[in-house]
Recover the amino acids of this structure.
């Protein structure tokens, strides 16, 4: 049996493929390369000495999915494929709903007709909306996401819950990621955003490597210890290990399961800058700019449910996260195009 990884040529997906190959799983990757790189999979093969089967194609292509499920005996689907840029989702909402929601519908239809009913979905802490109680725990009511990207994640969660209610043969994990960062310790695969990075850590590493002049800190007047925004940053290798644990758990757990994947600790923007400076031995020029619209002051995960039920917890700290992010960036200054 094989594991299908949609979006497996992207940032988190490529690390997932590596972890699966290392565990001796057979892996099929489906990715349309809209934001991923086939080079990431070549490097994964180099690192693991094993190959995933790569299919370049779209999760909205039902014919392709039917042929894929017919050709490969798939036991589980890890569904990472999706668009993820918040600002872009505000400008192009239809594209986001088509890709993220329409894509998930088509994928589930194809799974259902192939009799594959184990699915791990990449959700996000954004589904908690503007909850003011921290840490966020899975029992909180779903919130109102502030942008179309977040709403697309919430809509897919709701659809999957309905699917699980309608047919108890489905086993579905909704994994709510907090802030993934870092890279594989080899420095061979990592995060390669197109254009100006939206996220903090890739922005910092691009400043350090000379691709950007300075970091703009989005506001320093939040009600947090140093006034800058606080988030729960989780090492991408911890995150993919959480998926392995969830995949194993749902094999014996039909229905819908929800787990936060975070560390349970919050760090401010300035904490992150200082941790990076220490890891990389350089100074990051920063200036304080206005708040970014839609940003919350602070949130982090209650990560105890995953620990209790999956026996998983994040093991890597900020130091490793920053050292690994830096190793990737400095050895690939222009990402996979280097
Ligand atoms: P990414 O953009 O690096 O990877 C997504 C991959 O999906 C890309 O390789 C892209 O080419 C592919 N893809 C997109 N639409 C597709 C389609 N229609 N058909 C086939 N392939 C398609 O993003 P990532 O950071 O690796 O995120 C993976 C998943 O995790 C996404 O669903 C994202 O929304 C979710 N997530 C990410 C974060 C984060 O901060 N990185 C946080 C929470 C949730
Ligand atoms: N941030 C910042 N400058 C940047 C990018 C992000 O100050 O160039 C801050 C942002 O306001 C938030 C934190 O860094 O407090 C994490 O932002 P990111 O976009 O990485 O993740 P989010 O939590 O918004 O999904």
């Amino acid at each position: 049996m094989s594991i299908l990884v949609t979006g497996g040529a992207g940032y988190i997906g490529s690390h997932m493929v590596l972890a699966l190959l290392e565990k001796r799983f057979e892996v099929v990757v489906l990715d349309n390369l809209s934001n991923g790189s086939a080079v990431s999979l070549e490097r994964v093969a180099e690192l693991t000495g094993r190959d995933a089967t790569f299919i370049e194609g779209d999760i909205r292509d039902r014919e392709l999915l039917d042929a894929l499920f017919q050709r490969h005996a798939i036991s589980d689907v890890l569904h990472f494929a999706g668009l993820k840029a918040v600002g872009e989702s505000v400008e192009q909402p239809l594209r986001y709903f088509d890709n993220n929601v329409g894509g998930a519908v088509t994928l589930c239809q194809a799974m259902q007709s192939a009799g594959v009913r184990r699915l791990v979905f990449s959700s996000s802490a954004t589904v908690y909306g503007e909850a003011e109680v921290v840490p966020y725990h899975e029992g909180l009511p779903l919130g109102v996401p502030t942008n179309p990207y977040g709403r697309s994640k919430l809509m897919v969660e709701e659809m999957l819950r309905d699917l699980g209610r309608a047919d108890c043969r489905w086993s579905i994990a909704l994994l709510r990621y907090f802030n993934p960062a870092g890279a594989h310790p080899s420095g061979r695969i990592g995060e390669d955003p197109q254009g100006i990075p939206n996220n903090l850590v890739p922005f910092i590493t691009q400043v350090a490597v000379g691709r950007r002049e300075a970091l703009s800190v989005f506001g320093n007047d939040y009600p947090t210890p140093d006034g800058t925004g606080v988030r729960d940053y989780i090492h991408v290798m911890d995150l993919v290990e959480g998926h392995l644990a969830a995949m194993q758990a749902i094999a014996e757990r039909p229905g819908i399961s929800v787990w936060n994947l975070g560390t349970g600790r919050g760090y401010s923007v300035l904490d992150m800058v200082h941790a990076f400076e220490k890891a990389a031995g350089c100074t990051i020029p920063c200036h304080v700019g206005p708040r970014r619209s839609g940003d919350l002051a602070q949130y982090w995960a209650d990560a105890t449910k995953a620990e209790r039920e999956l026996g998983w917890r994040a093991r890597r700290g900020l130091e490793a996260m920053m050292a690994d992010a830096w190793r990737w960036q400095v050895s690939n200054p222009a990402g996979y195009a280097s």
Observations:
- The first helix runs from residue 11 to 22.
- The chain has a mean pLDDT of 97.
- The two ends are 36 Å apart (CA to CA).
- The pocket of nicotinamide-adenine-dinucleotide (ligand 1) is lined by residues 6-7, 9-13, 30-36, 58-60, 80-84, 99, 103, 122, 124, 177, 180 (CB under 6 Å).
